[in-house]
Design goal:
There is one protein chain. With 139 residues, the protein is an alpha+beta fold. The chain has one domain (2-138): Roll (Nuclear Transport Factor 2, Chain: A). 27% of the residues lie in helices and 35% in strands. It has 4 helices and 4 strands, in the order ααααββββ. The protein has helices at 2-15, 31-34, 43-56, 59-64, and strands at residues 81-93, 100-111, 114-127, 130-138. It has a 4-stranded antiparallel beta sheet with strand order 1-2-3-4, covered by helices on one side. The longest helix is centred in the first third of the chain and has 14 residues, at 2-15. The protein is globular and about 40 Å long. It starts with a helix and ends with a strand.
């Protein structure tokens, strides 16, 4: 019986693949960050977790992972926009020992039957020992 339970769990994990594109399940990838059980170890990991938060509609996490200096007082997501895929184009710094980092990405979405893409270079900083989103240059 243990094997059957393991197979069922693996099948459930595949169904819940993380929107960030890591290939891991959401409960084992971005889920712990969204629930506040872990912090992103790198700027890219934070970028991926923020994309996943947009995909699952977690505005609380988006606001918590935003630098207090640039964070809006509230955030309203478009309920008609479905985030499909994240492509990391480039990263500069943002590693385990860095205090700043930049992640360039393309985020693909579907809105009202049309597919679109948002391209951006996001800047991240460490604040109180954890990575937070600072701001972005739209492309």
């Amino acid at each position: 019986m243990a094997k059957r339970g393991t197979r069922r769990h693996a099948a459930e994990d595949r169904e819940l693949s993380c929107p960030c594109g890591s290939g891991r399940s959401y409960p084992r990838c971005c889920g712990p960050l969204h629930r506040g059980e872990a912090d992103a170890p790198t700027a890219e990991a934070l970028m991926r977790s923020r994309f996943s938060a947009f995909a699952v509609g977690d505005t609380g996490y988006l606001l918590r992972s935003w630098h207090e200096r640039t964070r809006p007082s509230r955030l309203d997501l478009d309920p008609g926009r479905r985030w499909l895929r994240l492509e990391i184009v480039d990263t500069e710094r943002g590693g385990l020992l860095d205090s700043t980092g930049t992640v360039e990405f393309r985020a693909y979405h579907r809105t009202g039957g049309h597919t679109g893409m948002q391209s951006e270079r996001s800047r991240f900083v460490r604040a109180d020992g954890r990575w937070v989103y600072l701001d972005a240059e739209q492309e």
